């Protein structure tokens, strides 16, 4: 089979960085058409910078990186420097990027790319707030029918929230954008906290990254060394969850995951539960299913795949 064509929409973020590295290390399965940056974990200037740093770390300065939306559709930007550090990539000492940003806006790139490729042949992989995707769908409604699939990291059900008691960060930052995407009719696969909190970088797993003895392996180990301090303190867990690489792992080996095709709606009106992904896991409503919402991951298989692929870079 030919590689799956994807666009990575991202707000790096250390776990975003690992997802991008996994994508770029897997050319037999994945063809990255471009990377679009959005404001999220840190402001847009830093997410666009960080995406280019990671491309250069992977030896791919040819990869087009586009800057996108610098704020949510209707709300002030909420960021997560308390998790990712002031740059979003705190931990490793990586050089400033020399590759330039690609000309044009990320939203226009998404639209043009979908119109240029055969209907159903491009998968969108958002790893941050859904502002770029929602803006593209609003600007060019015709693209909805051309998107093969959206595989995203965001939301939660059993694990509830990580930025508020009810909401996961990516959805909370721009709930109106998430609402547009979840109502778009595009086939959705969702990697919620329920899955990503099972993908923990234990000390043994991080030692395996470091033991690769490469700049990529060392950088990944240093990234997880940095941001695990937050998760260990908050959750009492054994290490940091690698949220965003779950999206890439699904593209390579969907058998690593199990879930249900259910209805998921986004709360946009409540101060108390703003950004909540209301997942009808038990089928107690008559609302039509609109998303495959994952619930379990084979963590050992996931880390074996990740370590093997990072060793290729």
Task: Provide a descriptive summary of the structure in words.
The chain contains twelve helices and twelve strands. The chain has 313 residues and is α/β, with parallel strands linked by helices. It has an eight-stranded mixed sheet with strand order 3-2-1-4-5-6-12-9, sandwiched between helices. Strands 7-8 form a two-stranded antiparallel ribbon. A two-stranded antiparallel sheet has the order 10-11. It is globular, with a radius of gyration of 18 Å. The mean pLDDT is 96.
Number of H/I helices: 12
Proportion of helical residues: 25-40%
Oligomeric status:
single chain
In sequence order, what are the helices and strands, one letter per element? EHEHEHHEHEHHEHEHHEHEEEEH
Principal-axis shape equals globular
Helix/strand-derived category reads alpha/beta
Strand content: 15-25%
How is the biggest beta sheet arranged?
8 strands, mixed
Terminal residue distance: 23 Å
The number of E-state strands comes to: 12
Order of strands in the sheet with the most strands?
3-2-1-4-5-6-12-9
Which stretches are poorly predicted, pLDDT < 50 over at least 5 residues?
Answer: none
Key attributes of the depicted protein:
alpha/beta, 8-stranded mixed beta sheet, two-stranded antiparallel ribbon, 12 strands, 18% strand
Q: In brief, what are we looking at here?
A:
Helix content is 37%, strand content 18%.
SSE inventory with pairings:
Blueprint: E1 4-10, H1 14-24, E2 30-37, H2 44-57, E3 65-67, H3 81-84, H4 106-116, E4 122-126, H5 131-139, E5 147-153, H6 169-173, H7 175-182, E6 188-191, H8 193-196, E7 200-201, H9 203-210, H10 215-235, E8 240-241, H11 245-252, E9 257-262, E10 264-266, E11 277-279, E12 291-297, H12 299-310
Parallel strand pairs: 1-2, 1-4, 2-3, 4-5, 5-6, 6-12
Antiparallel strand pairs: 7-8, 9-12, 10-11
Helix pairs in contact: 1-2, 1-10, 1-11, 4-5, 5-7, 9-10
């Amino acid at each position: 089979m030919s590689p799956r064509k994807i666009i990575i929409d991202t707000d790096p973020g250390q776990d975003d960085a690992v997802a991008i590295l996994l994508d770029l290390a897997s050319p037999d399965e994945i063809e990255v058409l471009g990377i679009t940056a959005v404001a999220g974990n840190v402001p847009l200037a830093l997410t666009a910078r960080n995406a280019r740093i990671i491309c250069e770390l992977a030896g791919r300065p040819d990869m087009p990186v586009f800057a996108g939306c610098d704020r949510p559709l209707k709300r002030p930007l909420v960021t997560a420097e308390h998790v990712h550090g002031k740059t979003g990539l705190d931990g490793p000492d990586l050089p400033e990027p020399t590759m330039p940003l690609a000309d044009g806006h990320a939203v226009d790139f998404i639209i043009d790319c979908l119109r240029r490729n055969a209907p159903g042949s491009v998968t969108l992989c958002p790893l941050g707030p859904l502002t770029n995707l929602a803006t593209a769908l609003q600007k060019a409604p015709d693209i909805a029918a051309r998107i093969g699939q959206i595989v995203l990291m965001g939301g939660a059900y059993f694990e509830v929230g990580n930025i508020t008691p009810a909401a996961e960060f990516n959805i909370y930052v721009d709930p109106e954008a998430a609402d547009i995407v979840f109502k778009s009719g595009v086939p959705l696969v969702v990697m919620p906290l329920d899955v990503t909190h099972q993908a923990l970088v234990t000390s043994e797993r991080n030692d395996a990254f470091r033991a690769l003895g490469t700049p990529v392996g060392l950088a990944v180990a240093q990234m997880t060394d940095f941001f695990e301090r937050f998760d260990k303190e908050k959750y009492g867990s054994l290490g940091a969850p690698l949220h965003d690489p779950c999206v890439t792992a699904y593209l390579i080996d969907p058998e690593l995951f199990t879930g249900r095709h259910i209805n998921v709606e986004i709360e946009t009106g409540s101060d108390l539960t703003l950004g909540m992904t209301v997942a009808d896991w038990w089928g107690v409503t008559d609302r039509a299913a609109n998303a495959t919402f994952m619930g379990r991951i084979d963590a050992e298989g996931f880390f074996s795949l990740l370590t093997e692929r990072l060793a290729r870079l």
